[in-house]
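REQUEST ID: PR-0412
SUBMITTED BY: lab tech R.K.
PRIORITY: routine
TASK: structure prediction, single protein chain
INPUT:
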Amino acid sequence: MKFGGTSVANFEAITRAIFIVGGRLDKKPVVVVSALSKVTDLLYRISDAAASRNVAETKQLLSELRLRHVNLASDLLAQSPALRENAVARVTSICDKLEELVNAICAVGELSDRNKAIIISNGELLSSTIICFVMNAKGIRTNFIDARKMMITSDEYLKAEPDLNEIVSRVPAMVEEAFSGMDAVITQGFICSNHKGEQTVLGRGGSDYSASLIGMAIDAERIEIWTDVDGVRSADPRTVENTKYLEKISFEEAAEMAHFGAKVLHPLTIEPAVKKNIPIYVLNSMNPSGKGTAILRNELIEDGVKSVSFKENIRVINIFSMKMINTSGFLRRVFEIFSESKVSVDLISTSEANISVTVDAAEKIDKVVEQLSEFADVIVDDDKSQVSVIGKNIVRLNGMLKKTFAPLKRTNVYMISQGASFVNISFVVDREELVEVVKDLHYHLFEVEEEIEQF
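STATUS: complete
OUTPUT:
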C-alpha cells in the first residue's frame, strides 16, 4: 500500500490513511509513504538556498520544515503523551541532523549530488516516522523499516537505477522479520542507498516505483497506489471536462499513459509488477469506498481507446544528413550521443536522410546539438507539445486513424509516431494549440458516440 503526498498531507489525510490500512490488516500490509505534500519541494529549495549560501532563507525554510512536522506529530498524538514525546524527539533529531548538514553546505557554498540526495530524502524519513508512531497509537502494531537498508541502487545519487537482484535478495527476509508480532510494517518510498551505503534517490515521483519494487520482491497479492483521484481517467480532468472513468486497463496501456504524460503513476511503476503479474490498483484515499482502476494483464482487457495523454512542453530535434543514405552505423552514432549525455528520447521518426526525435524541454541538449552538428544539420524546434492516443490494439481498429486525425484539420502536425505494439499513436503540435487539440480529440474519441446514443 503506497500513500502519496496528498494522502498523507495533514492531520485529516493521515487519519484517513491509517483507517484504510486498518481495514487491510488481514492481508499483512506493507505501507510505503511519500513525504508530506509539498515537503520535497521545500527540501529542494533548502538545498538550493544552501548552495547559494543564503543563510537567512535557509534558516527560515528549515524552521518551516521543523515546525510543520513537530506540530503535526503533536496534534496526531495528543491523546498519547508518551508516544508524542518520543515522536517529537525523533522528528527533532532528524531535523537537527539535516540542519547540521545544510549549515556545512552553506559555509562552503558547494552542494554535491550526494549531499543533495541526503537533503531531499528527509521528507520520507519524517513522514514515515510520524505515521509509524500514530499507527501504533491507534492500536495497529507497526514496525519501521529503513528503506535505505533494502532498496539498493546504482551510484547515481539523484536518479539511481535499482539493483533488482539485490532488492529481491534483501526485501523478503527484512519484511518477514519486521512482521514478527506486528500487524503492519511501514517504510519509505523514493529513498534508497547504493552498494557502498551512500544515500540515493529514485527521482521525483519515485515512491510508486518503490512500492512496485517491494511488491515484486515479496510476491505481493496486489499493489495499491493511494492518491487523490478516483483511479485513471480518459484524460487529465484539469484540461478536459467530461473525462471518463476507466475501470480497468492493461499493464501496457498504463505504462504508455504514464510515459506519455499521465500524472497518476510514475512511468517505471509497471515493470516490476509485470515481472510477477501482480495487479496494481489506483485508489482514492479521499474516497476509500471507490473502486478505483485495476491495472491487469493484457488478456483481461478489451481492445479500444483508453486515454488521450500529453506532454505539454517538449522540443523536436531534426537531424538531416546525406551521409545517412546507404550508410550503416549512422543511427547508432546518433543515439550514442543522446545516451552519453543521458538525454532521454520519446518519439522517433526517420526517413532516408532525416531523423526527428522529441525530448522533454527540461533536458539539457547543448552538448548533444554540438556533437550532432559535427556531421549533420541540426534544427531544434521549441514550444511544442506531444499528444498521444493510447489503447489496446487501437491501430488495428477500423476507422481509428480517421477518428484520431479528423479534429486536426486546422492544426499543424510536425511529427507522427506509431508504437510498434499498437498501443499508441502520438503526434506533435504547437504548444499554444495543445489544450484545444486535446479537448477536440477527446470529444471525437469519447463523447460523440455517447451523444448519438443519448439522442
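NOTES: The first strand starts at residue 2 and ends at 3.
REVIEWED BY: pending
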